[in-house]
Specification:
Layout: E1 2-6, H1 40-53, H2 66-73, H3 77-89, E2 93-96, E3 100-103, E4 109-112, H4 119-125, E5 130-140, H5 144-149, E6 158-167, E7 170-180, H6 195-203, E8 209-218, H7 221-227, E9 234-243, E10 249-258, E11 262-265
Parallel strand pairs: 4-11
Antiparallel strand pairs: 1-5, 2-3, 5-6, 6-7, 7-10, 8-9, 9-10
Helix pairs in contact: 1-3, 2-3
């Protein structure tokens, strides 16, 4: 499969280290792998957020005081204070007056499976900022099943897209999408939005319904790396074929959800 990879702003960090500016000693956080182009307080905020996501601090834990964090990261208290304020606004930290600062209790994104909405809309509906931290796309020959599913388009080639979707910067699912090359974006640059929106805007193809299989699988090493979880962590997978206004399948997808960050429910009626 020929591939294009795209680093996405605000996405997974590179290994470039911190930028020493504002006259501060950055030795304490130079190994955290935060892009050096970020302003210093955001670099520190990213380092603290990584500790939370990686489980160094659990929900409800009190984080060290500003003086201690400043010492650990080799920066000023003012820089730490600004970083903590940013993480408080983003919902990662909670400040308790006269006591200290604590890791916020995680609030999973939840919803029913009866309505078909994009992942972007789902994340926004819970008050989070949707984003994309990793994109890889390439073209290849379709499998026999894909060729059958997408037969109306007579695809000699399909485009396969891998993305990690985030909520407030936290990875929540790994998406694998397959669609005919004729409908696919030409570059990864346009893939920080909903694929539903892209198909409707650029091609007039409106996703009306989907056929969905609900499965349990395990994170591959690559998925685990990008989702910041342990390899073989159980994931909930929605394997779907999406249909347009003419009831023709136009998009095949496998969405792998981190189960403690996404919850589903289904309303069932007695027959």
């Amino acid at each position: 499969m020929s591939q294009h990879k795209s680093p996405v702003p605000g996405g997974k960090a590179s290994s470039s280290g911190f930028r020493a500016d504002q006259g501060e000693n950055m030795a304490g956080i130079g190994t955290q792998g935060i892009p050096s182009r970020l302003p210093l307080p955001r670099q520190v905020a990213s380092a603290i957020r990584s500790r939370i996501i990686n489980g160094h601090w659990e929900p409800g834990d009190q984080i060290p005081a500003e003086d201690e964090l400043a010492r650990q990261f080799g920066v000023s208290r003012a820089t730490v204070r600004e970083a903590v304020a940013l993480l408080t606004v983003q919902g990662y930290l909670v400040k308790r007056r006269g006591i200290g600062t604590f890791v916020a209790q995680a609030q999973a994104i939840s919803g029913g499976l009866e309505s078909l909405i994009s992942i972007t809309q789902w994340i926004e509906a819970h008050g989070y900022q949707p984003g994309t931290s990793y994109v890889e796309m390439g073209s290849r020959s379709p499998t026999a099943q894909e060729a059958e599913e997408l037969s109306f388009w007579h695809p000699e080639m399909v485009t396969e897209i891998h993305r990690v979707r985030t909520a407030n910067g936290v990875p929540v699912l790994y998406c694998i999408d397959v669609l005919p090359v004729s409908l696919a974006p030409k570059t990864p640059d346009s893939l920080d939005e909903s694929l539903f929106q892209y198909l409707e805007r650029d091609w007039g193809q409106v996703v009306i319904f989907a056929r969905t299989a609900i499965e349990v699988t395990q994170a591959t090493p690559s998925m685990a790396h990008h989702l910041q979880i342990d390899p073989e962590t159980p994931l909930l997978r929605l394997r779907q074929a999406h249909f347009n206004q003419q009831s023709l399948p136009i998009l095949l997808s496998q969405d792998h959800f981190v189960t403690d960050r996404f919850h589903f429910n289904v309303l069932r009626h007695r027959q």
